[in-house]
What we know:
Keywords: Ribonucleoprotein, Ribosomal protein. This is 60S ribosomal L6, mitochondrial. InterPro entries: Ribosomal_uL6-like (IPR000702), Ribosomal_uL6-like_a/b-dom_sf (IPR036789), Ribosomal_uL6_a/b-dom (IPR020040), Ribosomal_uL6_bac-type (IPR019906), Ribosomal_uL6_CS (IPR002358). It comes from Olea europaea subsp. europaea. The chain is mostly beta strands and 102 residues long. It has one helix at residues 62-75; strands at residues 5-12, 17-21, 26-30, 37-40, 45-50, 54-59, 85-88. Helices cover 14% and strands 37% of the residues. A hairpin with a 3-residue loop joins strand 5 and strand 6 (54-59).
Amino acid sequence: xxxxxFRFLKIVGVGFKARAEAEGRLLYLKLGYSxxxxxxVPPAVRVFCFKNNVVCCTGIDKERVHQFAAAVRNxxxxxxYKGKGIMYIDEVIKxxxxxxxK
Length: 102
């Protein structure tokens, strides 16, 4: 399969990890829940994990690649107070400041 479209996701957080198995057909995510999140990858998409915190979704159909990347991101969207979660590698999260004490 010739990969034309890519989408890179960065996982930020203590203990947050990803691993791909079955030749890019299954994606397992540890996101601080009591269980591992298991995602089945669609047929036109492949998944690779660089290190533990960078996931690459690739394929020949742009819409399916981006849709699957959005589904992965939706498992733990980036948080605006601490900056933890799954975000696109080129995404910039503007952090909010917390409560101020007098």
